Amino acid sequence: QVTLVESGGGLVQAGGSLRLSCAGSGRTLSDYDMAWFRQAPGKEREFVASLSWSGGRGYYVDSVKGRFSITRDDAKNTMHLQMNLLKPEDTAVYYCNTRPPRSEYWGQGTQVTVSS
């Protein structure tokens, strides 16, 4: 079983950037297909981006394509989400999990707030 801890969120103006991190412990993240999800106020949690256990190119929801980039640092057992050209509609709590997600792996998430 893996434990996941998200970090890197914050308050940023529209057009700005943030880099989220997902630190894994217990097992290596490269054992899993991994993903980022987000939940905006009053909305259901949605998929944002994923990365295969073998690495390679990420897969993204249409709304973030060309702006977000998912990567993994195997040496640090950490996954990242580089978010550029942020928009107010990107405001949400961001979570990492496996893909498909497992209920026991949900963490506290990290809050991203984009001001207009």
Outline the secondary-structure elements:
Layout: E1 3-7, E2 10-13, E3 18-25, E4 34-39, E5 46-51, E6 59-60, E7 68-73, E8 78-83, E9 92-98, E10 110-115
Give the tags.
0% helix, mainly beta, six-stranded mixed β-sheet
Question: Brief description of this entry?
Answer:
With 116 residues, the protein is an all-beta fold. The protein is 0% helix and 48% strand.
Describe it.
- It is a single chain.
- The chain contains no helices and ten strands.
- It is 0% helix and 48% strand.
- It has 116 residues and is mostly beta strands.
- The model has no long low-confidence stretch (mean pLDDT 97).
- Strand 5 and strand 6 form a beta hairpin.
- The radius of gyration is 13 Å and the shape is globular.
- Strands 2-10-9-4-5-6 form a six-stranded mixed beta sheet, with no helix packed on it. The chain has a four-stranded antiparallel beta sheet with strand order 1-3-8-7, with no helix packed on it.
Spatial sequence of strands, sheet with the most strands: 2-10-9-4-5-6
Major sheet details: 6 strands, mixed
Which word captures the global form?
A: globular
Instruction: Report the helical percentage.
Output: under 10%
Query: Mean pLDDT, nearest integer?
Result: 97
Number of strands: 10
Low-confidence stretches: none
Compute the number of helices: 0
How many angstroms does the end-to-end distance come to? 40 Å
User: Order of SSEs, N→C?
Assistant: EEEEEEEEEE
How much of the sequence lies in strands comes to over 45%
Cα-atom radius of gyration: 13 Å
**Could you say which structural class the secondary elements and strand pairing correspond to?**
mainly beta
